[in-house]
Every structure is written in structure tokens, then in C-alpha cells.
Description:
Oligomer: single chain
Largest sheet: 5 strands, antiparallel
Number of helices: 15
Distance between the termini: 68 Å
Strand content: 15-25%
Shape: globular
Radius of gyration: 26 Å
Amino acid sequence: MNDPFEAAGVLRDAYRQVDWAATPLGPVTSWSPALRAAVNLVVRSRAAATLLWGPQFVLLYNEAYVPILAEKHPTALGQPAQEVFPEVWEDIEELLGAVAAGQGTVWIENFRLLIQRHNALEETYFTFSYSAVAGEDNQIEGVLDIVSETTGQVVAHRRLSMLRRLVSQLADVDNSQTLLDRALPVLREDIGDLTFVDIFLPGTPTTTAVGTVGGAARRDIDLTALGDERAVSIWLSTGDPAQDGVLTVHLSPFLPVNTAFQEFLELISATLEQSLARIAARQNERRAAALERDMSEALQRSLLTTPVQPDHLQVAMRYQPAAEQAQVGGDWYDAFLLPNGCLTVVVGDVTGHDRHSAAAMAQVRNLARGIGYTLQQPPAKVLSALDAAMSGLAVNVYATAILAQVEQDACDAEQGLRTLRWSNAGHPPPVLLQPDGRAEVLNATPEPLLGTRLKVDRHDHTAILKPGSTVVFYTDGLVERRATGIDEGIADLVTLLGNRQNYTAEQVCDLLLDHFGYTTEDDIVLAVVHAYPENGPRPTEAGPAILPRDLAPDHSA
């Protein structure tokens, strides 16, 4: 192993440009076998990882870790952790020291850190593991940090929780003062997003005259020209100018001002406007349904993220809410890479269609992702562990799910093949479209759904994916209708997929939603994996994963 940087990919040049002799690690020729092996392991990993080596915890990291560093890269290479992260050193020094002292591995979920990056101090969250790396004499030489940034998920959950409380508090308000008494405490609790909140309404004792404030307020929310205080005033329209109000907020200085923040403010203002309109007009049914629908789509945007796109695999996802359903659903999808590069795809459905189902869906989805990534076991063992975690953590819901892994060992790679390995917990079976145009249902002996608390011996099933194969995973909303059974729907799905072997994963999603999607009585989730030839071009980029109901064409005629 003459050059430990040979496998560093795009970071190879950055590693080679470091004057290692001037760093605490010394010249590369003096590095210990343990350090060379650890660097080789880290730079090959697709999961974000860094080594913190020696008593000064010098950083050596891989390509997936670069987004965490932002502008700190590439100067962070070869630098002590205290110099790279002075702003959080007090938070992590003791943890690193404990691992380096042989006190065992550290595992922390959603750890909050204020990191200096993107030219600002940012509120961030990380799930990570610190583990010791020992040399040939069994002496600990460094610490391995495997990390996943969870800032988006944590902030989205926090905002969604606040929106749920706000909607609940305002459900039966009948006057402006009650609205203020209930809304302001909820909004002022969310100090992570909003450092200051006030609402000005006509006719309330503490109100500043709306006319004096309203001159600066906007009917549209524009976050492009914030001052140092990050203050925004938003006009709250009721349809009656005499009853209009103004919401004033100061945004947290530790969060980026982005589309998600703007959508969050839009949902808050929409909630307040809806309550004001109900007070003025005593009509809230249509407004409440529209708000719940917006919250549903905001939730799916937060949780159902863009899928990974591994080499020579195209992954396409779709979520479409039910045509008449105004509440949050329990369907979900997920796709992520394990540290060994294996693609994991999960599609599931929590029973029910309310906010509790949505909260449970988020728990089950995140449990499945964390267990799958950490356990790194075949699908049956992951589902068994998920079932046990749901029971132990009192996630008292039932859910169907199918968890699949797309593997490729050295033998398969020589032939351009892949192995699909899956386990099914009471979920509709996937459909495999072969390169010759034959579509077949991947049936297996049914196994119980998740959450039954029964002792279940789950099993794995396999199928070979040839170049050009496509696998379709879906929830029952795609194929089940009141007028027909699910078996008829699956048969229709197989017929529709036949001879579509030239379709990309994105085209298959569009085909299925165009055929099934606009008369659905339930939410639909699709996950399609297409194994394209390794000597062929990558198919077109992903389309919109979440389809709002109001964009669906009318197929009722």
C-alpha cells in the first residue's frame, strides 16, 4: 500500500497537495500501517466518514464528508480538529477523548451543533458514531467518525410539530382575542426557527393599529431582502379588510433562509388567515381542508427526499395523495446506500389517514432507515429488528412494508448482473419487468405485517436483475379499488408493464400514474429501480417525486 490516497477519487489531488511533513502526522512514509489502512478504508466509503488521528485528532476524510465541511475544505485536510471546528470543540472534545482513552464507542442521534459554514454560524444536527482505531500493538491511534447529517429531518419535524399544535389550538376559536391567546404561545415556543413573534389584529386590547404596521407588511412572503434583524411582516387577509391582521416574525440567525423556511412561514400565515376567516365568516370547512392538504404535501416534501442514484441504477420515486383525501397519509418510500454500496429500497404503508398516522409513519420510516444502515444485514433481519424496535418503543401502529436490497458481488459484476434480495411484511408484491418485455409478479409466502407483536420468522427472497431489468414497488393505493379486488389490480399492472422494457424508471412512474393515479381512493407511493447496461448512458434525471392533487389531470370524463 505505497500510496494511501490512490483510492481517494476526486480528493486524490487534494490529499497529495498537503504537505504532510508539516502536519502533526508527519510524512506519509512514516505513517503506521493502521493509519494507512484506515485512510484506505475511509476514502473508499460512500458514507460520510472522517478519521481523527493522533492526540491532536488530525482530520482525514472522504468525498461524502466534504458537504459537512463546506468552505472548510480542503484546508481542513491534515489539520487538528480543534483548528477546523473551534466553534464546536467544547461539544466534541470530551467525546473524542473518551473514545481515544479506550472507554468504548460513542453513538449519538440528532446531536445539535452550531457550525461555522457557508459564511455563517449554522444550526445543524448529526447522527454519528465515534469508534477507536487500534494499531498492531492494540494501542488506540485514532478515532473513526461515521456521520450522517440530519438537519433537514430534525428541522422539518420540529416545524411540522409546531404546525400541528397551532392547527389544534385554533380549531374552535371564535374571536380574535382567543386566537391571540392560543396562537402566540405556540408560535413563541418555536425559538429554534423564530426568535420573535407578534400578531396585530383589530379590536384586541394590546393591538397596535393595523394601519401603522400594515404599510410595511406584504401580502406575498419575500425573504430575498432581509435586514440584519431578519424581520418579516406578513399581511393576514380574511377577505374583509376591516378584519385583516399582520404577523411579524424575526427568523433565527442560525438557519439558512431557503425555500423550506419560506414554505414554513406560508403555512403559519395560512393557518392564522384561515382562523381569522372562520371568525369573520363562520365558514371553515373548505379552508381547513386546504390547509390540511398543504400540510400533507409539506410533510411529504420534508420526509420523502430525493432518492440516491447509484452507478448503473436509476431510482425513481413518486408520492401522490388521494384525490379526495385532505389529511396526512401514512404511505412512504425511501432509498439509501449502505456503507458497502448496496442500494436499499423501502416502501411501506402505516394504517390510517390522520396526523397520528403521519407521525407514526415518520417514526417507522426513520427507524427503518437507521436500523437498515446500522445493522447492514439482509432484509428479513432488518424487518425483524424494525418490528422489535416498534414494539419496544411503543410505536403502536400496524404497517405493511417491503424492504429490498440490490446487491452485486464480484461474480455478478463480471456478468453485468445484480441480485435483488427482499423481504415482505404483508405488502403487495413487487413486479419485475425483464429485459425481454415479460412482466412477472414476485410472489412469496405472505408474512405478517409490522406491529402485530407476534414472534415472526421472516424470510428473504431473491431474483436476478439482468441489464435492462426494472423492478416496481408500490402501495395498495395504486392497484386497489372498491369496485375490484387487489388481485385484479395487480393483474392489470402486469399487463400494463408488459413490453415496456425500453422505459426508464421515470417513464414507468409516469405511465403507472397516468393509468391508475387519477381515480385513486388512497395515497399512492411508487418506487421503481431500473438496472441499465453498464456501457450505456445514464437515463434522464428524476422528475417531481411528490405530485400535488391540484396538478393532476382530470381523467373523469
